[in-house]
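step 4 of 6: structure.
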Amino acid sequence: GAVVSQHPSRVICKSGTSVKIECRSLDFQATTMFWYRQFPKQSLMLMATSNEGSKATYEQGVEKDKFLINHASLTLSTLTVTSAHPEDSSFYICSARFSGTGNQPQHFGDGTRLSIL
Amino acid sequence: SQQGEEDPQALSIQEGENATMNCSYKTSINNLQWYRQNSGRGLVHLILIRSNEREKHSGRLRVTLDTSKKSSSLLITASRAADTASYFCATDARGAQKLVFGQGTRLTINP
């Protein structure tokens, strides 16, 4: 089945640090990737939709200058949390969908647990 | 915004019993999908049902879709301890690229 690799799986760092998370589709091309945030025992909240070769589309309330997204190739999207603070601590998950027609599921990475001290 | 609502929020049953989870949504959809999430992990796709389908099976999973009521159900038969996880429905709305997830059901299977 389709595999999405997300790295790193866990980050612990000091307040003010910028953190980059990578999301790779290993065996398929993904025109579109998605970034989610999940708080404990809650559902996934979509942060942004990442489109290869163009600017990401951010959901309402998500600061684009805070959460920088780059989708430079059909297999890689990155999320950079800039100048992270304790309130940015969360579980971040990416997903990717096959390029082409609709009615396709999303394939998820294993998530990155970000802890800001 | 999260448009899906799932019930129950939590379900605890004995191994071997059947588990039923329900999902309601608000807008017109292309399809509805069910995912499973083990604690601290990403989501695993279970099954996709298109808007013109009413029922779909995959192994011990059975999904129904009622577009007139804007609702879906996931039935897991003969549950196993390994089925313990959170289950989410997600709708792929018409005209939208993105999925909208329900709040999820935390399922616990007691051995």
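step 5 of 6: annotate
 - Chain A has a mean pLDDT of 92.
 - The first strand of chain A starts at residue 4 and ends at 7.
step 6 of 6: archive
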